[in-house]
What we know:
Strand content: 25-35%
Number of helices: 11
Shape: elongated
Low-confidence stretches: none
Structural class: alpha/beta
Helix content: 25-40%
Strand order of the largest sheet: 6-11-8-9-10-7
Amino acid sequence: MVHDCVLALGFFDGIHLGHAALLDRTRQRAQALGLTPAALSFDTHPDTLVFGTAVPLLNTMAERELLMRRLCGMERVIFAHFDEAMMHMPWQVFVEDYLVRQLHAKHVVCGHDFHFGDRGQGDPARLQEKCRELGIGCDVIPEIGAVLDGGRPVSSTRIRRLLQTGRCEEAVRLLGHGQLVTGRVTRGAGRGAGLGFPTANVPFAPGVLVPAFGVYRAEAEVDGVRYPACVNIGVHPTVGALPAPLLEANLIGFAGNLYGKELAVWLQAHLRGEMRFESAAALRARVLYD
């Protein structure tokens, strides 16, 4: 059974401070109205279809859902399939048929720059007017950058640039949490264990942004327990380049077998870039220092 809900609208890549403000309002409205707090996102970034440009996403769908549920209290997370039909859907139909009739929205919440429907003709003003006609509530959340960051926009695009250029701490400040990377631990060559620092190897999901190569301070979560971690992202230039970037996490204080387990890594700070060493001994000395 689908319950009536207060529905947040957006793509929500990264779940940054702006998204959190919108989702917090959604949760508060739901509590006041006795409804389910819910969020609507999409399985594909609209720019991929609209402009034919692939967007390197901050998170997978599963990670977005985890963040919205755990950090923002969403009880229901919906991923709409963004295809040609969705892209060309008249904005009125999107509101009346999809949001209200199919998803049972009784109140909606969106950002000041939210656009939807064929050619992006739907905007916050039209959404508010249509909601009034339908007898449901509508909140529009203003840009929060003026308050939080001296007027600069807090956006997923800006956070992507920060992570790609090694400015992880700035990105974390705008996210309000560590940059999340999840995956199942795979077997590697065992070189970390050979150096005395066993690592959990996690490949990046297709289409997800790979942060700047190098060493990170992080936290790693497995079976509901968090550990401080030293993380390397890169391709192993010292011992033979990998075909694709890999995240390797050394969980400080963990003892046990991680192979096959789901690992959540929260990147906190970029300590240095990836380096090539002349010997395994030099590599081990630097890893110990890190």
